[in-house]
Design a protein that fits this description.
The protein is mainly alpha-helical. It has one domain: Farnesyl Diphosphate Synthase, CATH 1.10.600.10. The protein is about 70% helix and about 0% strand. It has a two-stranded antiparallel ribbon. A hairpin with a 2-residue loop joins strand 1 and strand 2. Helix 3 packs across helix 6, helix 6 packs parallel to helix 9 and helix 13 packs across helix 16. The protein starts with a helix and ends with a helix.
Length: about 350
Amino acid sequence: MALHAEAKMQPAPALTPMDRLTELLAPELADVERLLAERAASPVATIPDLSSYLIAAGGKRLRPVLTLASARAVGGKGSEAVNKLAAAVEFIHTATLLHDDVVDDSDLRRGKAAAKNVWGASASILVGDFLFARSFTLMTETRDLRILDILSRASCVIAEGEVRQLAALGQSELALGEYMAIVEAKTAALFEAAARAGAYTATNDDTVANAMGEYGRRLGRAFQIVDDLLDYGGLTAVIGKSVGDDFREGKITLPVIYARETGSAEDRKFWDRVMGDRDQHETDLAHAIHLIRASGAADRTLETAREEAAAARGALTRATPGEFRDQLALLADQTITRAF
């Protein structure tokens, strides 16, 4: 009985910043989920079937949370407009995932077979286009041209980033600046747009909204850099997740750029073969992970992400003091700790 009583008294695990923000924003997020389900509806059966297959799989809803929390962090109290904006942001993100899986020929998404493996590549692309269109319907319903301008521009940048990344495949000597431009376009642009547009639903102060946009941009850069490191197992000695997708696809990311930069002539020949020529053998991924860790590239990559996260926290000085600002600062830290 004593052991049972002691077990019952164990404290609950501490909430992560993302968990806490989700808790604080629960009513708004419930409305966002309703909007996602309603606006994905269509008399063309394939559209709701395919879109709900991915949307219902969940995901972190990081971008809608960022949209809603940015509004609250500058004094917003929640509104129909910001909920519609958050749903529009998630539709844009979902559309890019559908397109990405076709371009990258990915087999899995959120632990399930990729939609293109169930419905085919053409249906995935066309439903992605439908979701993009739905996102613009929701944007116009906010009745704010600033929001429409911000997200329409971001959508163009994201599409450019996709093409830019495709053109960079197999470039074993990809320049650091080109890699960061791809990160900026593919990931940071939507984070920035979500945070800036979210802020505009609650303030007309351009300085404040731009600061929140800078927070989102820097957070997105840190998030993607850490994701790229996690594809090589992060900093953990024992890999607890599936890794190697970027390696197999020939995507040159920051860990590879740093490892190649500091490696020997033999190491550079290895990177040229596996990433440039795409001549990959069974043991090559393990050797790539070894080189990234042994060369210090993993630590260096994480340090670059830390710098971005610090810049994100610094941008929050324009936000209103309170729990939303505090949790957004902690969210930047959580982005980094995922690497361990």
